[in-house]
Amino acid sequence: MPHVTPTIEGLHIVLIGSFNPQIFQPAWFSSENLIRKEEADSAKIDLVHPQVTSFSLEWLELRASPDRFSVTSSSDHRFQPELARDLTLGTFRLLRHTPLRMLGLNRYYHFPMSSEEAWHKVGHRLAPKEPWKGLLERPGMRSLTMEGTRTDGLRGRVHVMVEPSIHVTHGLFVLVNDHYEVEKTEQPEGASELMDTLEKVWKESLEKSRNIAYSLAELGE
Question: DSSP E strands: which ranges in the chain?
Fold first, then answer.
């Protein structure tokens, strides 16, 4: 079992395409049986506008703009990644003609390190200080992003970002962006391709992201 355990973890599901933000209101999701009526009635609505809709439930935050749709579930509230996935699938199975170009499964973690020394050790291993001698005084890693190619035959890439946590003292923030694109990015043919991808890769994507994040955090142990 891993020696490190995140204090905060979460998931962003992000879709890039063409959307009508005003559709995505709690009452609409309730009318389509995607959330319960009680949830719609108690939703915290931040904004409903032709350019942006934003609201939150106990287990999810949703935001939509003309070119971006996202849902977030985090352990700050009730972490329910499967419900976030099901809401996304249900929404765009209904709105199957919505032109979607990209899908991002973004898994993030804030790990408390066992000591300040362990915290520094991760930075030293990911961003060695020797090349910076004579160039910077007391160099330290503020942000590191790595990109990898896909190995599953799908279009897209994998990004991993590592930074000091802003929520945990001597903590490590890791974000894994598992990014997918439709075959015809200039003329996407509705939502079905990326919804099929979401169903197909869901379990493997989350397991891969978890493995990457925990492996990086354990560099300090």
Answer: 8-17, 44-48, 53-56, 61-65, 68-74, 100-112, 144-149, 156-164, 171-181
- Cα separation, 218 vs 103, whole angstroms: 29
| DSSP assignment letter at 206 | H
DSSP assigned state of 188: -
Q: Which residues of 98-121 are buried (b: 16+ CB within 10 A; e: fewer)?
A: bebbbbbbbbbbbbbbeeeebbbb
- Extract the tokens encoding 178: 């598992």
Three-state DSSP state, 18: coil
Which parts of 69-191 fold into alpha helices (H)?
A: 81-94, 116-126
Residue 97: CA atoms inside 13 Å, Cβ hemisphere, count? 1
Q: What is the pLDDT of residues 129-153, one digit of tens each?
A: 999 999 999 999 999 999 999 999 9
> How far is it, in rounded angstroms, from Cα 156 to Cα 176?
13
Quick check: 210 and 100 in contact, CB under 8 A? no
Q: What is the pLDDT of residue 7?
A: 94
CA 69 vs CA 13, 14, 100, 123, 217: distances in Å: 8, 6, 10, 34, 30
- Tell me the pLDDT tens digit for each residue of 74-100: 987 678 899 999 999 999 999 999 999
In this predicted model, what pLDDT tens digit does every residue of 55-81 receive, in sequence order? 999 999 999 999 999 999 998 767 889
Note the pLDDT of residue 4: 85
Cβ–Cβ < 8 Å for 173, 112:
no
